[in-house]
Amino acid sequence: MRLLSLISRTPSPLLASAVPAEPSAPGIDIPAAIQAHVLWKLRLQNYINGKGEALDAAVVGCDCDCVLGHWIHSEGEEVYGPHPTFREVKAIHAEFHRRAGEVVRAVDNGDRPGAQAILGAQEFLKASEQIKKKLASLFLEFDF
């Protein structure tokens, strides 16, 4: 049940550091990966507003540079690669990071309104929601 509450929870940077790790798939804590991706919208909004941490569009836009991405492109691929839900997670995760990188790139180019439009666009919101749902499905399907 912790996973379901994590998916529906409003992002909070204070809660993010307080969420204890729990056993999950080999090499990945799926609830923590979900939480990290929930927090991306807040991180990006802060970046648009000129607050928070410095972000690099190339790093943010790469789906292999976060903890989940490392797992997807290594152990996850090795163990779950042929599974349809895993393939969906991989594709949606890549789209999520591509869109997040576009937000950072727009800010870096001085286009804060454009960055805000990307962040609020249906494609970004859909990718954000889908990554949470598909990770939860993977978590439940394989009884991590």
Overview of the molecule:
The chain has 144 residues and is mainly α. The protein has a single domain (2-15, 26-141), classed as Up-down Bundle (Four Helix Bundle (Hemerythrin (Met), subunit A)). Helices cover 73% and strands 0% of the residues. It is built from eight helices and no strands. Helix 3 packs antiparallel against helix 7 and helix 5 packs antiparallel against helix 6.
What percentage of the residues does DSSP assign to strands (E)?
under 5%
**Oligomeric status:** single chain
| DSSP summary: helix tally | 8
From the alpha carbons, calculate the radius of gyration and give it in angstroms: 15 Å
Averaged pLDDT: 82
Any idea what the CATH architecture is? Answer: Up-down Bundle
- The helix/strand class is mainly alpha
Number of strands: 0
Largest sheet, in brief, is:
none
Question: What's the structural domain tally?
Answer: 1
Shape: elongated
Would you list the SSEs in sequence order as H and E?
HHHHHHHH
Which fold does the CATH topology refer to? Four Helix Bundle (Hemerythrin (Met), subunit A)
The parts where pLDDT drops under 50 for at least 5 residues are 1-23
CATH class identity:
Mainly Alpha
Helix content: over 70%
Question: How far is the N terminus from the C terminus?
Answer: 13 Å
